[in-house]
Amino acid sequence: MAKRLQIFVSDASWDILMEAHKRANDGFEIGTVTVGDIVDQAISQLDLDATELQARKTDLKKALKVYLKEENLSAENLIQKLSALGVASRKSPKQKKINANTGGHDE
Questions:
Q1: Dihedral through CA 50, CA 36, CA 10, CA 82, nearest 10?
Q2: How far apart (Å, rounded) are the C-alpha atoms in residues 101 and 5?
Q3: Distance between terminal CA atoms of the chain?
Q4: What is the chain's pLDDT, residue by residue, as a tens digit (107 residues)?
């Protein structure tokens, strides 16, 4: 049974998804490939790098709170722990919301 999911993607990911949608349907006259079909196939073939994803999504304030609760944590150890996270302070790219079932998008 199919599940419905609404997701947000960056502008760059949206452009890649739209190009894949265009390629999948170019010259395909006996059916239609939806954006949802492309997302479903991509997810089923996903090889997730959880460590890299966690590094990008780490909240520095939360990390500091967790690390500061540790006993006997020196400033040097705190700096090492934060450096090991590989977290860069930056804003996330603008994202677009897509409805994977219909292939449409909302902004």
A1: -10
A2: 7
A3: 28
A4: 888 889 899 999 999 999 999 999 999 999 999 999 999 999 999 888 888 888 888 888 888 888 888 878 888 888 888 787 775 544 455 556 666 555 555 54
Domain hosting residue 48, numbered range: 6-88+95-106
Which 8-state DSSP code applies to residue 4?
Answer: -
Contact 80, 69 (CB under 8 A): no
Residue 1, in any domain of the structure: no
Judge whether 20 lies within some domain: yes
- pTM over 0.70? The answer is no
Please indicate, yes or no, if residue 22 is contained in any of the structural domains: yes
Residues in the chain: 107
